[in-house]
Fold:
Amino acid sequence: MTAHAELAHYRKTVPNAPTTHIDRPRPGDGPLLWRLARDSRTLDLNSSYSYLLWCRDFAGTSAVARDPSGRAVGFVSGYLRPESPGTLFVWQIAVDESVRGLGIAGALLDGLSARVAAEHGLSALETTISPGNLASERLFASYAARHGATLTREVLFAAEEFPDGGHDPEVLHRIEPLHF
Structure:
């Protein structure tokens, strides 16, 4: 299945969701993605400038879900790890509160994975999740199950490694092998 066909497949399988189109972010999406991250109340909020840069420099490894009017209602940002180019690291994923629970986050992950696999090859997906973020843990566990892959977890950065204090540990979730 081509990356375009794969994206179309995931668009059609989002139950009860308004028609969503998944595509690459554009620099003009940066302000709304920053707001989505801020309003998630679970993500570490980066500077607004970083979201503008992300939409320009990492658009090929990121995705945006758009509602019928073209407004961004969700996003996933990621990058290919330089030391492991077959590994997509998912930096952040957020969905607007008005459309949560409709499968958009899963469709974003599946669609982005299919595109990255078609363009670069993909054998593994990684992300970090703070303990207690059950929604993210369920999202990535279900991604692993859908793709018939193994999910392993280990602490990547302990709480005491963060210089500003008060940060939970970041647990690395690695999903492999992926076959597209």
Q: What stands out?
A: Strands lie at 21-23, 63-66, 72-81, 84-95, 124-129, 150-157, 170-176. Residues 1-7, 9-13 have pLDDT under 50 and may be disordered. The first strand starts at residue 21 and ends at 23.
